[in-house]
Amino acid sequence: MPDIDWRRLPPLASLRAFEATARLETFSAAARALNVTPAAVAQQVRALEEELGVSLVRRAGRGLSLTPGGARLGASLTDAFSQVAGAVETARNADRERGIRVASTPTFGSMVLMPRLQEFWREHPGTPLSLSPNEKISDLRRGQYDLAIRSGTGDWPDGQAELLFASRYVLVGAPGLVGDDPDIRALPWIGPVSGLDHRAMESLDIDPGKVTLHGLESQALFVPAAVQGVGLLLAAEAVVRSEIETGQLVEIPMPETPPMNLWIVTPQGPVRPAVRDFIDWLRKTFGDKRKTVE
Description:
CATH topology of the largest domain: D-Maltodextrin-Binding Protein, domain 2
Structural class: alpha/beta
Largest sheet: 5 strands, mixed
Number of domains: 3
Distance between the termini: 60 Å
Mean pLDDT: 86
Strand order of the largest sheet: 4-3-5-12-6
Shape: rod-shaped
Low-confidence stretches: 289-294
Number of helices: 11
Order of helices and strands: HHHEEHEHHEEEEHEHEHEHEEH
Helix content: 25-40%
Oligomer: single chain
CATH class of the largest domain: Alpha Beta
Strand content: 15-25%
Number of strands: 12
């Protein structure tokens, strides 16, 4: 295939205006298709005629017809632009069947996101999505993830972060464990095997070394264990909201603590259309309109 000498080609705007005029047969129809004025279309067609040095259309009052040269050029441009449009659409949808790969924190992924995924699939049927809850931060590039949902400060080097929401922390327990006047120092707690968060416990004026801890390997087990009455749980309110609303867990008053900030993190570079759809759904479903980090 010979190289294209772009210097000899007229501007794309004039070729596009003439193709629409030749196909739709009036300046007005072409203008509507291109979302410009009829005068702008006519000006582009005149500029193309001047550059080529040939007449492409015959004007007769408000109507027009194509010259033989104009008809040939118009047909060729329609074929060429159709091929370009097809190639662009193929490129746009090339990875759609690959699905969306999402890494997430275990508690948000299993307790909050997973139960709501059917809502996403109702809006976007046929879009495959795989969710990988992981207590460690997954490398987006190495793991070939399209996005991650992380808690923290938002300053990760492997991608760009957008705050999804900020959730306050709450202290909760099963009604049978908590009773009417709970002594949170005497009751057992649920947390990671490595121990309870010292800063959080200090805000409650509790020595973490002096409470009974039921350490669990997976964060995804924290909420189910709390519902079963295994111990008290300090968790983001967004994670245990449904259990509080249904009465499976009750909230115990506690001093205000810094919130948990949850972020959408995407790799640097372009974002596929299917991934953009999922991010838009996350914003609509979970997004905090305030977007403030305390």
